[in-house]
Design brief:
47% strand, 0% helix, four-stranded antiparallel beta sheet, mainly beta
Amino acid sequence: MKYSILIALALISSTCKKEKTTAVGAVVVNTSVHCPESVDSVYAFQSPKLGGGGNIFPSEVSCMNDTLWKYPSFNPNNANEICYIERKPFSSSRFLKYNILTDEKTVLYENVTYGGQPIWCKNNWTYFAGFGNNIVRINMSSGNREMLTSLNQDRNVTPNVLTSQCLFTRFVTNSEMYGIKLGPQGELLDTLNGIPRGDWRDNIGTSGVGYFKLLTKNYETGIVDTLCEIPLERGSIKDIKIHPNNKDVYFTHYFRDGMYKVNIDTKEVTLVKEGNNSCWYDTFSISQDGSKIVFEKVYCQVGWPGAMAAVSMKTEIWIMDIDGCNESKLNLEF
């Protein structure tokens, strides 16, 4: 059975030894995958330098001399190519593509505004929300931009990588919102009950309801199934992607926790990568051949030298094997 998934981190050593897994509650942990603890107390969460107490929500302000690289997405036609957002200090953002083999970087769009991850689809267009809460697509060869909606009410776009159709949420008011399905060129295909958010393949969407419960919904039958529930202490769901095998769903959390996968049939949850207070995994993409994950690695610290906020984040784009091994940083300096 094929699935279409709609859904609502961490530092390891340079080598990844194959070791047996250890069951911890409902989660299977690969004991060879770990993340070093923070060196001292200056890192973000419950830091003594901020008086302790509850969690601090980091401001997305880079250090004055640092660039943020965000929202990577694989080319579904070429696993050696990605697109991403670059945000330089005191400057506007731009949208680029990068060839991992040749190290070639191409600027596709200057002064891009975005409200989430651009998703590169099979038709060679990238779809995302931006430019005033609208649905946008950019051609990955020419860089041409097309506005698919214009009401400034649309967010949470979820493209289907294979069909290039899009699901998104239209926020009419704070209490009135609904889902919309668009064709590849922006043609209206359907309206949906519920709010799509996550990943989508074929007829099944996976959604992080309340961001603490991971569900699948079959859009043909309407059947909803719970994959797993997230303990509050692990933080809410940040990103979710369905593996091209249509059997495993990968997801990350907002801050502190790691990257996981859950099997749709068995509902077994496995820790792929571990995170901590100072370094975690964020938005990510799985290559169409299912062998690689490209991801946004976030470093968080209190009182970073030159930072403009009490708590600051730095982001980089890394790549690793689907099992979490062979992690390496992509050189995106340009």
